[in-house]
From TrEMBL:
Compartments in which it is found: Cell membrane
GO MF terms, alphabetically ordered: transmembrane transporter activity
PANTHER family assigned: FE(3+) DICITRATE TRANSPORT SYSTEM PERMEASE PROTEIN FECC-RELATED (PTHR30472:SF1), FERRIC ENTEROBACTIN TRANSPORT SYSTEM PERMEASE PROTEIN (PTHR30472)
Annotated protein name in UniProt: Iron complex transport system permease protein
Primary site of residence: membrane
Listed transmembrane segments: 52-69, 81-101, 107-129, 136-157, 228-255, 267-289, 295-313
CDD domains: TM_ABC_iron-siderophores_like
UniProt organism field: Petropleomorpha daqingensis
Cellular compartments per GO CC: plasma membrane
Any Pfam family: FecCD
UniProt keyword list: Cell membrane, Membrane, Transmembrane, Transmembrane helix, Transport
Biological process per Gene Ontology, one example term: siderophore-iron import into cell
Protein family per UniProt: Belongs to the binding-protein-dependent transport system permease family. FecCD subfamily.
Membrane topology listed for this record: Multi-pass membrane protein
Length: 321
């Protein structure tokens, strides 16, 4: 844990120090602790620090959400998008632009949160009707994701303004997303982390199988509802601010599980720290490899996550949570 905290501090320091505008380490230090109001101070304090804080918050949220959803579905290839959370948020953002002309990040955030919540409730309801097993939840999530994806494509293709706004939001980036949006999303992120922590003991019991868990006195429906609520709040708030960022929720829980084992009381905090490190480092890499321009963090993570996904599906051991 201490090593991960050190890595996170180093990643955050790199995120604050590296950017399109070259600023020496000494000036970065003075901008942080003895600002004089220079242009460098403004860049560091008004742009890079909020961007880094946003990356840490979203990384923690996506990492923990991935660990929770993999625990509930017992599917090592699951990530928060499996339950339609991202698809629900994306459709709501498109609808907000199309029907109400909302284009700001802070304005679309509330629509994204509402869309994520509605999609999760629908998936959980359909999954419960089918028996409430991990398989029915995953199938309901896939069906709702496909349905919402079709609706989103229909809106995007029918209106040029919606296409432009959605294209900016859907790329998955930390650029220009920090002003005010994180403050609005923070209560939802904290509530999601609290629910995930409460859900950790139940996840350990559910790993033994639903029959055994029920025999041990575990209330399966309540545990599932708590987990879904945690994933919805964490992913919905994160996606609302930055747009959909894939692979953090898929990759990070496996790395955390290799360190901590299956105990979710340890797995969840480790997944959060690893998610924050991965997202911040990917954001820094995106600035370096395309300098003086930069690649959105969503694209960088796609390059990292796709090979990991291929390795994952080839390792039969991991397909048995």
């Amino acid at each position: 844990m201490l090593a991960l905290l050190v890595l996170l501090v180093l990643a955050a320091a790199a995120s604050i120090a590296v950017g399109a505008r070259g600023i020496s380490p000494g000036h970065v230090w003075s901008a942080l602790f003895s600002p004089t109001g220079s242009d460098d101070d403004v860049v560091v304090r008004s742009l890079r620090v909020p961007r880094t804080v946003l990356g840490v918050a979203v990384g923690v949220a996506l990492g923990v959400a991935g660990a929770v959803i993999q625990g509930h579905t017992r599917n090592p290839l699951a990530d928060p998008g499996l339950l339609g959370v991202s698809a629900g948020a994306a459709f709501a953002v498109c609808l907000a632009v199309y029907a109400f002309g909302v284009t700001s990040v802070t304005g679309s955030m509330w629509f994204a949160l509402a869309g994520a919540l509605v999609a999760s409730v629908v998936v959980f309801g359909l999954g419960t009707l089918g028996g409430g097993t991990p398989v029915t939840l995953a199938l309901a999530g896939a069906a709702v994701t496909a349905f919402l994806g079709a609706l989103t494509n229909g809106l995007v293709l029918s209106d040029a303004q919606t296409l432009d706004a959605y294209r900016f939001w859907a790329v998955g980036s930390l650029v220009g997303r920090a002003d005010g949006a994180l403050a609005q999303a923070l209560p939802f992120l904290l509530a999601g982390l609290l629910l995930a922590a409460v859900n950790a003991p139940a996840l350990n019991t559910l790993q033994l199988g639903e029959d055994v868990a029920r025999g041990l006195g575990q209330r399966i429906g309540l545990a599932r509802a708590t987990g879904i609520a945690a994933v919805t709040l964490l992913t919905g708030a994160a996606v609302a601010v930055t747009g959909p960022i894939a692979f953090v929720g898929l990759v990070v829980p496996h790395v955390a599980r290799a360190i901590t084992g299956p105990d979710h009381r340890w797995l969840l905090p480790y997944a959060g720290l690893l998610g924050a490190i991965l997202l911040v480092v990917a954001d820094v890499v995106g600035r370096v490899i395309a300098s003086p321009a930069e690649l959105p963090v969503g694209l960088v993570l796609a390059f990292v996550g796709a090979p990991f996904f291929i390795v994952l599906v080839r390792r039969r051991k991991l397909v048995t949570l």
